[in-house]
Hints:
Blueprint: E1 4-8, H1 15-28, E2 42-46, H2 50-59, E3 63-65, E4 68-73, H3 88-96, E5 100-106, H4 122-147, H5 149-153, H6 157-174, H7 189-194, E6 203-208, H8 219-231, E7 234-238, H9 240-246, H10 251-260, H11 267-278, E8 281-287, E9 291-298, H12 303-310, H13 312-316, E10 318-324, H14 326-332, H15 335-340, E11 345-347, E12 358-363
Parallel strand pairs: 1-4, 1-5, 3-9, 5-6, 6-7
Antiparallel strand pairs: 2-4, 8-9, 10-11, 10-12
Helix pairs in contact: 1-9, 4-6
Amino acid sequence: MGFKMGIVGLPNVGKSTLFNALTRTAAAQAANFPFCTIEPNVGEVNVPDARLETLAEIANSKQIIPTRMTFVDIAGLVKGASKGEGLGNQFLANIREVDAIAHVLRCFEDGDVTHVEGRVDPVADTEVIETELMLADLESIEKRRAGLVRKLKGNDKDAQQQDRLLAAAQEVLESGQPARLVEVDHEDAKAWKMLQLLTTKPVLYVCNVGEAEAATGNAHSAAVAEMAAAQGNSHVIISAQIEEEISQLDAEEAEMFLEEMGLEEAGLDRLIKAGYALLHLETYFTVGPKEARAWTVPVGTTAPKAAGVIHGDFEKGFIRAETIAYEDFVALGGEQAAKEAGKMRAEGKGYVVKDGDVLHFLFNT
């Protein structure tokens, strides 16, 4: 199951520097999994999770396979993108294909790096991109609603539902707000998602600060934090300069460098974790002598659906899931000890997987 996060931003905000650091870091991790650059602007990275190494050590697993997230470096946006300015059409098409947006904002002062708007104001920068996305959504909605007229006259129920949702989105957008603010009922959730409106994508603001401000942030990143909190979105502070330097180092050198900078972990790790949380994802594990592996599922996934992430046959023939909580697996020293202590549970089709579960699926072929 792939999850894509699009990296967007105005020109010269450090977006591509961050993406390049991400992909170089991923390439350095390739001993653990086949690194895949699908296109020049797409890269897959590990989702950092210290629990996986702990489980592998306990089970003497020969291989460690982390779960992954895909990052897409989307062409820089300028005013007028909704009307095709710059690489506008390509930009908008690429955003439709991602699950969430990492919006990189310039929060650093540097006279040698020109800002496209001639000033450093990250909050205003967010408004440029949000406005373009809202304009694109409004244009799309108007075209779609016009195309539904014939079906609506024929009382087509799907068309009625689609038109009702589009009308709700249009009303919010015309008030100057993104479509993600529309309250959608559970029975409309699937149809709403199928609309693929740009402003329904969850947003993570990435504050790109100078090297000296990586640990503390600055006034610009504080303004973004306040804005994100008011919107119900999240933010992360990163120095693209530092991340680029770290991507060139081995693990030991990187750890020493981070310590010198007063940082507990690389900003890219925090970015990946924040993206994972933004998409409401969680991890379960399969552990054995051959491999310890992490699997990504949305929060609220049932055991059969979780099994289906491994293979469709696991979901179709699902019988039960033998389940051990991560804490019990570690505290008792492995599967057998957990089983003997009565900490292994047999869970059926209705079981909702919890973050950190160590699972073994039984199924009919």
